[in-house]
UniProtKB/TrEMBL annotation:
Signal sequence residues: none
Organism this protein belongs to: Mycobacterium cookii
InterPro entries: SAM-dependent_MTases_sf, SAM_O-MeTrfase
Protein name per its UniProtKB record: Methyltransferase
GO molecular function: O-methyltransferase activity
Keywords, alphabetical: Methyltransferase, S-adenosyl-L-methionine, Transferase
Classification via PANTHER family: CATECHOL O-METHYLTRANSFERASE 1-RELATED
C-alpha cells in the first residue's frame, strides 16, 4: 500500500468527499460522480460472474481512483466471519451504497436470501448493476426506503419479502449512524431476530454511533453478547474505527 493510500489526506478524492458531505446526507452520493464511475469501472474491468473479482475491483477503484465508503478490504473479513458464524437463511442490510457489503454477505452465505434497504434510488440502481455483473442478482434484493419512515419499509419487508418473527438470522448496520439504535429497536419490536442471530455495525467509532455502543454495553450478557473489533476507517490506515459484532441472546 502506497503512502497516498495509507494517508487519506493526501488523496484529492478525500477532500472532494468532504466538500460533498452535504450532498451525501441528502442524496446518498457525494455529487462528483464517483459512485457511477465505480459501476463503470467494475463493468469494464471485473470478470462477469466472478464475485471475488468484482469485490477486488471495487477495492482497487477505492484505492486508485476515488475513495468509497463501503466497509472495505480491512474490515470486510470481519463481516465475512460474522456471516459465516450466523449461517443465515435470511440476511438484512441497512445501507446499500454501491452494493459491496451485500456482495460479501452473499458470498459468505451462498444459500441465504439477502435484502438491502437503501434510501437512494440512484444507489439502488448502481448496486443492482454490480450484483448482476457479479452473477448474484437473484440472491440480493434492494428495497428502496428507510426503517424510520413510519413503518412503510418494515411493512413491505413483511408483506412482500417474508420477514416474520424469528426469521432474521443476520443484520448489518452501515447506514446513517445516528439511527443505528432506533432502527435496531424497531426491528426488535417486530420480533424478527431469532435467538442467536448476529448483528454487525460498522463505523461505530468514525463517524461514530455512541448511543448504539452504549446500548450494547448496557445489555452485555443479558440481551446481547458483543465483541468490539478494532480496525481502521475504510481504505486507509490513519483513522481508527470499531466494528461491533453482537449476538442476540433473546428477550
Amino acid at each position: 500500500m502506497s503512502l497516498k493510500q495509507r494517508i487519506p489526506l493526501l488523496r484529492w478524492s478525500v477532500w472532494r468527499m468532504a466538500v460533498g458531505a452535504r450532498s451525501f446526507f441528502t442524496t446518498g452520493q457525494f455529487g462528483d460522480g464517483r459512485e457511477a464511475a465505480a459501476v463503470a469501472y467494475v463493468l469494464e474491468h471485473a470478470r462477469p460472474g466472478d464475485i471475488d473479482d468484482v469485490l477486488a475491483t471495487i477495492d482497487r477503484f477505492a484505492y486508485e481512483k476515488s475513495l468509497l465508503i463501503n466497509i472495505g478490504d480491512e474490515k470486510g473479513p470481519l463481516l465475512d466471519a460474522a456471516v459465516r458464524r450466523a449461517d443465515p437463511k435470511l440476511a438484512l442490510e441497512l445501507g446499500t451504497y454501491c452494493g459491496y457489503s451485500a456482495l460479501r454477505i452473499a458470498r459468505s452465505a451462498p444459500g441465504a436470501k439477502v435484502y438491502s434497504v437503501e434510501l437512494s434510488e440512484a444507489n439502488a440502481a448502481n448496486a443492482r448493476q454490480i450484483w448482476a455483473h457479479a452473477g448474484v442478482a437473484d440472491q440480493i434484493t434492494c428495497v428502496v426506503g428507510t426503517i424510520g419512515d413510519g413503518g412503510h419499509t418494515l411493512d413491505a419487508l413483511a408483506s412482500e419479502h417474508g420477514f416474520a418473527p424469528g426469521a432474521l438470522d443476520f443484520l448489518f448496520l452501515d447506514h446513517e449512524k445516528s439511527v443505528y439504535l432506533t432502527d435496531l429497536l424497531s426491528i426488535l419490536d417486530r420480533g424478527w431476530l431469532r435467538t442467536g442471530a448476529i448483528v454487525v455495525a460498522d463505523n461505530v467509532k468514525v463517524p461514530g454511533a455512541p448511543k448504539y455502543r452504549e446500548y450494547m454495553r448496557r445489555q452485555q450478557g443479558t440481551l446481547w453478547q458483543t465483541v468490539e473489533h478494532k480496525a481502521h476507517l475504510e481504505y486507509q490506515r490513519m483513522l481508527p474505527d470499531l466494528v461491533l459484532e453482537s449476538e442476540y441472546l433473546g428477550s
